[in-house]
Write a structure and sequence with these properties.
The termini are far apart. Helix content is 11%, strand content 24%. The relative contact order is 0.16. The mean pLDDT is 86. By secondary structure, the protein is of the alpha+beta class. It has a four-stranded antiparallel beta sheet, with helices on one face. The chain is globular.
């Protein structure tokens, strides 16, 4: 009689920014690629050519994009090669940081707010 190994393997990574040990399986069951605490990631996939990336730079969260269906996407920029990526926001991501990024364009517009009074 042969025995089989039916154990569930959950991968994990250590955040390059805050050092948190993070499971690649998010609380909502989706696969995550970023830290739920600080939202940083690591450049391990080449999104232009496909396959693994040789860069391995730190991916900094820079913005939030909202899809037509209402889903939020986290936009990252690699600090080493400047590649941009987008990944879905997970249910257990840091809500305070997400909201700060979402309202930043309104709180810091590229023009003086006083100009709105003249319209």
């Amino acid at each position: 009689m042969s025995s089989t190994n039916n154990t569930l393997k959950i991968d994990a990574f250590t955040c390059a920014w805050c050092g948190l040990n993070v499971s690649t399986c998010a609380a909502d069951g989706t696969r995550r690629n970023h830290c739920p605490s600080c939202l940083h990631s690591q450049h391990v996939a080449d999104h232009v050519e496909g396959g693994p990336s040789r860069c391995h730079g730190r991916m900094t969260p820079i913005a939030i994009a909202v899809l037509r269906n209402g889903d939020w996407m986290l936009i990252h920029r690699c600090v080493r090669c400047d590649e941009l990526t987008s990944h879905p926001v997970c249910a257990d991501d840091n809500q305070l940081i997400l909201m700060r990024m979402a309202v930043r364009p309104l709180a810091q517009p590229p023009f003086p707010l006083e100009a709105l009074g003249n319209l």
